[in-house]
Design brief:
Blueprint: E1 3-6, E2 10-14, H1 20-27, H2 44-61, E3 65-70, E4 76-85, E5 95-102, H3 111-126, E6 131-137, H4 141-149, E7 153-160, E8 163-171
Antiparallel strand pairs: 1-2, 2-3, 3-4, 4-5, 6-8, 7-8
The protein binds coenzyme A.
Amino acid sequence: MEIFAETERIILREILPTDRDGLFAVDSDPDVNIFLGKKPVEKIEQIDEIIKFIRKQYVDNGIGRWALIEKHTNNFIGWCGLKLVRELTNNHINYYDLGYRLNKSYWGRGFATEAAKATLRYGFDNMKLNDIYAMTDSQNIASRNVIEKIGLKYVDTFKFDNTDHDWFEIHKQ
Ligand SMILES: CC(C)(COP(=O)(O)OP(=O)(O)OC[C@H]1O[C@@H](n2cnc3c(N)ncnc32)[C@H](O)[C@@H]1OP(=O)(O)O)[C@@H](O)C(=O)NCCC(=O)NCCS
């Protein structure tokens, strides 16, 4: 099992097939899905497909979202990480997107910020990236706060799935 980053409270490691229950708890929660333009997942088998899809990205792209684990409990908090986006999005293609999604019981305790900061560091220091991007539904204040707290800058607002989304970027100094 590969660990990519570690901070005071968390570990970021590869997502494993055994994360299915933890991921199901996140993706089946309607509150988690409010700003994601998705319906909550209903069947655990859908999670098995998602895990396969993410693990295929590790092989094909050398990177994908990681499991976010609380150190002292070993609980699955959610996921955080970089994804190589191959689809044209707001005039960008083949770019690295920073994202995260947490179990509701962990919201509001700084976990997303801690994980996103470690992910950014990995992108610049280990992957030697020059640019990292993020986007969020314009109404998703919590996500915007995380993005801006770790240093990404707002660029513009664009339509994604017919909904206003904000686009952010950060470049290696
Ligand atoms: C977005 C999300 C990852 C934030 O996770 P989190 O661990 O609660 O974030 P943090 O605790 O690091 O908080 C970051 C900042 O946002 C603020 N914040 C958190 N939730 C908030 C809310 N609902 N409304 C307003 N501000 C909020 C925090 O106070 C904090 O700012 P502060 O340090 O100045 O107080 C989490 O809410 C989530 O998983 N949402 C569902 C999935 C999702 O929307 N993912 C992002 C898609 S772009």
